[in-house]
Amino acid sequence: YHTHDVAKAVEHYSRAIALAPRDAESQQRASMAFLRALNSEEAQQTASAAAVVDPFNPEARSLYGMLLMLRGDNANAVKQFVAAQRHNPAARVSDEHLAALVAVNDHEGALDILRDRAVKQPDDYIVLHDLGRMLQLAGKPKAQWEEALLKARKFIHTILKNDSSDGRAHAYLGLVSTRLGAFAEGISSAHRALAKAGSDVGTRYLVARIYALQRDKLSEGFVQLSSAAHQRLIVSALLDLDLQNLRNDPDFLRKIVE
Hints:
Elements: H1 6-19, H2 24-36, H3 40-53, H4 58-70, H5 74-87, H6 95-103, H7 107-120, H8 125-137, H9 142-162, H10 167-179, H11 183-197, H12 201-212, H13 218-231, H14 235-238, H15 244-247, H16 252-257
Helix pairs in contact: 1-2, 2-3, 3-4, 4-5, 5-6, 6-7, 7-8, 8-9, 8-10, 9-10, 10-11, 10-12, 11-12, 12-13
């Protein structure tokens, strides 16, 4: 799998499942191999099997929920994320869980979680960005989402003043700028992020999100997302709210995995 020999990975994990059909970990790994092989239906079924054989495993529940989301079954995805949270109540509510809430139009539920997070982490620019984004997506007054995004930008500027090599901070500055309507500044920050940390897979995913938010830059969004996915396929990253314009493409998975 990690050498990108997907056919061999599928064969290996299928054999492992046949030998140990109640091994949820093998089921999960097989699911990822099927996803890389562009067999999303088999990936979902295998993830479902993992959640059935180990229903108290939050990782199995979450993976199944994410694959349901990729296939557009958002309501059932929410159920899986809720179950995962119930079996690991100390864990932070995942970004994909929040994205699923948005997908079923429960923006208020997502906002409650993010507002609470912002109270506890008032200096965290990622939390502030996420809150501003959710307020914007929920159609709240401009003053509300702008306040959160401007606070995020202020903290990012402070971080970059002390360490201009922080690629992820540059990328988040691009996301914040884009949400504030400064599209050219967003792209400039994307360029700086890649120049500072282009080999970092997390930075690549962030840069893909910047391009995906600008409708005239979707092709470059696919380029960046494909580059990140080939370096490391992170299903939760594919489900980020900023990538919705890319996921609307019926060939989304093929374009980033092939």
